[in-house]
Every structure is written in structure tokens, then in C-alpha cells.
Amino acid sequence: MAHSLFWRPELVNDNMAALMPRWIATGLVTAFVQVCIYDNIRSALNGNGVVKGIKFGLIAFLFYACFSAGWSGIFNLPETIWLWWNIEALLIFIVGGAAMGFVVAKLSSD
Hints:
By secondary structure, the protein is mainly alpha-helical. 72% of the residues lie in helices and 0% in strands. It contains 4 helices and no strands. It has helices at residues 9-12, 20-41, 49-72, 79-107. α3 runs antiparallel to α4 (79-107). The chain is globular and about 50 Å long. It starts with 8 loop residues before the first helix and ends with a helix.
């Protein structure tokens, strides 16, 4: 609660359900954008589908980490929050990238 000014009012007031439409829409749109980016660069990555996906996940994480470092200079949140958000992002991007690479390899004609 020490940093509640940084959170959306719905989170502070225990009304997370009100944010679900935003979270779902954002998740779907960003997933489609990431798949489109992956489709355009996967031929530049070596390995099978899963390995290509993991490499893409690492690339996406590096961009995330760069933006996170920049935002950490703007928002005065504890360093542990930034650290945990980056660890979480690394895991999500690697696992998500591997899953995406696997599915794309199965569905593509390459």
C-alpha cells in the first residue's frame, strides 16, 4: 500500500474484475503483434521451432529489460519490484516463446 498512488484505482479498491476487459484485450492484441513480429524474423533464427521461440523470447525480454531500466528512472518504486518484474518477464517470454515456436513450427509450411 506504500505505493498505491502508482496503481489503478480498481486495484486499490479490490475491484480487479473491472480491469479484466482491459487485460484480456491488451493480452490478445499484444499476442497477435508478437506473433507477427516472430513470423517476420523466425527465418533469421537457427534451430527447431522451440529453440527459435526461446531465442525470440530472449530477444523480447532484452527489449523489455531496456524499457524497464528506463522506466525505473522515472517511477520511484523499490528496486525489488523492478527485479521481480524482470525475472517474471524473463520466465514468461522464454516459456511463451517456446510455446509459440512449437505451435508455429507445427502450423507453418516451412
